[in-house]
Inverse folding.
């Protein structure tokens, strides 16, 4: 089983960068994909091919090896997705080959890491394209991969239901009011190298940086339970309340354990 | 996040069959209700800095308060939408999932159209990026800070009076299938613990401000003799429509009004009053005269006078007027201003009707009777509808009557609540009811009827007969108490509305033999109390059937007649009951 990955860095919202899209519907600006909110959307102005283009500015080159997309219609509206980058904004190289999503669920795909000033997310139509594309959350950056798979017993899905039922005077079920579906993902690891917590090899490459810059603010991030082993187990989640950052040492090179409780809410698509 | 995509909800709700109506979702065993609140906010129809707007510098927020070129401001409307906070974004069209709760006002059949409370909508003040709100976010420093409502209040301080609508629907239901549950205006916003509470009022609130005749303060500027027919008075346009005025105890009929010199020509001692020496300072009061006309037409006139025409269910009023029909024409002269709502409900009582402000935001009307061939009933039972431990009964033993008195024929200058102002008194007494075998006491009610008049001649006999019929009908309907059942039903029965006729099969009320009853009621109260529960009150219909002539095809044998046949009148036995020895006979209405 592959190790979990998280994607929390997002070069799309680098403050000095310019994010533009070919055309957006009025009121559905491209910046809406940057706010981690699943209820604010970017929507294309028509059912046509569209590009998100990011210019990080001279000297602002950034690396990426992963894209995450949540609350979208790229499958149901029949779009193909390609990630490209460029050194001049003119000549583009595919980094994530054109492919069609297999569902409107969370999409999280990795590719070989490269660094560039210009990045582009291209949405291309297919014969079945009928509606304008919609995306609520999109992140492009370098993922953080855990050193090993989660401990045995970890469940790739844990969803419950918050509901209220009413019974009649004679005890029969009259109806259920379903409110929402809380979701959680519990990941436990034993014996992780301390370098996973305090590596200096890259901002996104260690857990300490994740905690310091993202996790402790309860900001959402993309998580893949086990890569493509469980293709469907990719989510947009956040750390549960009262999550602590600890590093119980086994010795100076190894941390005894790490437990993460991630939470979210499963939305029903329309 | 959309872990499970496509038609997940639909698959659960209705395997195979399309689910696209409000009702089909309501009937499903499991569903996710969503409330949609719309606030109609002001916005500018122009673009900042684009002619004719000559605003410069930092862009406005397309509101009047933030406008930099108010001369070019073009007031239009922007609909702000909020949906239930737990259930995501059903339309993905800019709606905010910030809605915490809607505290509905119940709909109720009572003696007033207005409600004393206010609809309260609680909405979270979430940090918000101005997505879909500020058209110029691309010119701002991102990310945009601030809470949604704090920014709204700063940019839209003049929110009072703007329209608010509340819709109900289900996750998966297209927007077009949502049902309007309430509409009113925004009256106040309070901020409390990271949320705002919108206080909203219904459009009938203003009915309290209307009286007939108008309240005015006009006094005579000079003494006039009993013979004077020219009065120096300035009349506004609304007062110039009155035919009669009252000064002291005299009624004056206006013949003409010369607005150029503010002079009124009158006939003195009108409506059988006596000409008086009128003194300076005597108050002049217009007299509202209406009729003779059908009481339902008067009700519609009053509704129109109160600017309620758009809110009136004209079809319901027409139906109540047509069946069983034959209401006596009414006529009135009112010289002291009376609240229009009071006048309306006097007519409601006279016609044995109920009017109320219903869930469709309409003032509607129904005639109350035990039987009506045009009526259908919704079945409610302990087994399939009533939520466990939710039912109770008020037997209303104190609300029955054995005597009913009506004063009528009021003098145009008489006081409405003094018996000496009226020419006639008609009563109905049920001696049986007062006997020791029944109430063993007198239980009576007296009303003053300003709408019935009489004149000498053949019309008098008819007027007296009508008065007798009325008091007997009122006593007839209240001779036996009509219990009220309080119960709660699940959302699948959410289409049961106030005013609906229902047949309730419940063991909360039992027959003499101990079996549970399956009686007919009218829903008089409905309130959405949350978690898929709707609270209802249903009042039993009168048990005494009115006599409706049956079509020729019906069987003549009551004992063999079906339930639907028995809507029509059958001949009773010599003791006044039907052949089962229990069921009350039919009565001439």
């Amino acid at each position: 089983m592959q190790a979990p990955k998280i994607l929390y860095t997002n070069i799309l919202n680098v403050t000095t960068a310019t994010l533009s899209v070919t055309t957006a519907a009025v009121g559905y600006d491209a910046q809406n994909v940057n706010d981690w909110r699943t209820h604010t959307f970017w929507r294309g102005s028509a059912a046509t091919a569209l590009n998100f283009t990011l210019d990080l500015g001279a000297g602002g080159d950034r690396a990426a090896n992963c894209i995450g997309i949540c609350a979208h219609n790229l499958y149901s509206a029949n779009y193909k997705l390609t990630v490209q980058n460029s050194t001049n904004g003119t000549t583009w190289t595919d980094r994530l080959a054109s492919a069609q999503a297999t569902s409107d669920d969370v999409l999280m795909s990795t590719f070989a890491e490269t660094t560039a000033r210009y990045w582009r997310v291209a949405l291309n139509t297919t014969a079945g394209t009928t509606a304008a594309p919609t995306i609520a959350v999109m992140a492009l950056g370098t993922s953080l991969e855990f050193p090993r798979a989660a401990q045995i017993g970890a469940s790739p899905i844990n969803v419950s239901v918050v509901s209220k039922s009413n019974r009649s005077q004679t005890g029969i079920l009259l109806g259920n009011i379903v409110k929402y579906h809380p979701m959680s993902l519990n990941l436990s690891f034993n014996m992780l190298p301390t370098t996973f917590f305090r590596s200096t090899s890259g901002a996104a490459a260690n857990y300490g940086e994740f905690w310091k810059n993202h996790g402790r603010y309860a900001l959402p991030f993309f998580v893949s339970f086990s890569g493509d082993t469980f293709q469907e187990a990719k989510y947009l989640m956040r750390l549960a309340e009262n999550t602590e950052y600890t590093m119980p040492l086994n010795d100076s090179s190894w941390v005894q354990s790490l437990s993460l409780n991630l939470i979210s809410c499963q939305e029903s698509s329309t | 996040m959309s872990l499970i995509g496509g038609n997940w909800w639909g698959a659960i709700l209705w395997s195979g069959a399309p689910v696209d109506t409000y009702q089909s979702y309501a009937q499903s065993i499991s569903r996710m209700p969503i409330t949609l609140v719309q606030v109609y906010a002001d916005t500018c129809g122009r673009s900042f800095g684009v002619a004719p707007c000559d605003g410069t510098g930092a862009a406005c927020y397309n509101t009047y308060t933030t406008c930099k070129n108010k001369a070019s401001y073009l007031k239009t409307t922007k609909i702000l939408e909020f949906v239930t906070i737990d259930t995501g974004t059903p339309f993905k069209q800019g709606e905010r999932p910030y809605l915490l709760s809607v505290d509905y006002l119940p709909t109720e059949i009572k003696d007033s159209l207005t409600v004393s409370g206010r609809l309260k909508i609680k909405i979270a003040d979430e940090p918000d990026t101005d997505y879909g709100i500020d058209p110029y976010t691309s010119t701002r420093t991102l990310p945009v800070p601030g809470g949604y409502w704090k920014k709204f209040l700063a940019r839209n301080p003049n929110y009072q009076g703007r329209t608010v609508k509340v819709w109900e629907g289900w996750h998966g239901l297209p927007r077009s299938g949502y049902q309007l549950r309430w509409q009113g205006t925004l009256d106040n916003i309070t901020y409390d613990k990271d949320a705002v509470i919108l206080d909203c009022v219904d459009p009938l609130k203003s009915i309290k401000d209307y009286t007939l005749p108008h309240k005015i303060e006009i006094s005579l500027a000079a003494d006039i003799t009993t013979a004077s027919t020219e009065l120096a008075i300035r009349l506004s346009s609304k007062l110039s429509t009155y035919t009669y005025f009252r000064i002291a105890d005299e009624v004056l009929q206006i013949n003409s009004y010369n607005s150029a010199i503010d002079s009124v020509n009158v006939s003195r001692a009108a409506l059988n009053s006596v000409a008086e020496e009128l003194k300076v300072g005597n108050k002049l009061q217009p007299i509202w005269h209406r009729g003779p006309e059908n009481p339902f037409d008067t009700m519609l006139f009053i509704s129109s006078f109160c600017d309620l025409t758009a809110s009136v269910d004209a079809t319901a009023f027409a139906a109540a007027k047509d069946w069983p029909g034959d209401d006596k024409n009414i006529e009135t002269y009112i010289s002291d201003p009376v609240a229009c709502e009071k006048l309306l409900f006097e007519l409601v009582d006279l016609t044995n009707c109920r009017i109320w402000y219903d869930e469709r935001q309409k003032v509607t009307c129904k005639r109350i009777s035990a039987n009506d061939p045009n009526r259908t009933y919704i079945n409610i039972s302990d087994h399939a509808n009533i939520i466990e431990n939710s039912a109770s009964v008020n037997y209303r033993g104190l609300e029955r009557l054995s005597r009913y008195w009506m004063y009528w024929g009021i003098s145009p200058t008489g006081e409405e609540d003094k018996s000496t102002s009226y020419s006639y008194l008609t009563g109905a007494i049920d001696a049986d009811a007062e006997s020791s075998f029944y109430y063993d006491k007198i239980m009576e009610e007296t009303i003053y009827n300003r709408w019935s008049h009489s004149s000498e001649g053949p019309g008098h006999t008819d007027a007296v007969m009508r008065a007798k019929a009325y008091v007997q009908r009122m006593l007839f309907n209240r001779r036996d108490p009509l219990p009220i059942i309080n119960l709660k039903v699940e959302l699948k029965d959410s289409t049961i509305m106030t005013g609906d006729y229902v047949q309730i099969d419940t063991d909360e009320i039992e027959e003499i033999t101990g079996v549970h009853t399956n009686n007919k009621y009218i829903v008089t109260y409905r309130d959405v109390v949350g978690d898929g529960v709707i609270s209802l009150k249903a009042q039993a219909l009168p048990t005494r059937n009115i006599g409706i002539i049956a079509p020729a095809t019906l069987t003549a044998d009551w004992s063999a007649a079906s339930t639907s046949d028995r809507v029509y009148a059958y001949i009773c036995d010599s003791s006044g009951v039907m052949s089962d020895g229990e069921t009350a006979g039919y009565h001439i209405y």
About this structure: Chain A touches chain B through 54 residues (CB under 8 Å). The domain at 5-145 of chain A is CATH 2.60.120.260 (Jelly Rolls). Helices of chain A lie at 195-198, 207-213. The first strand of chain A starts at residue 5 and ends at 7.
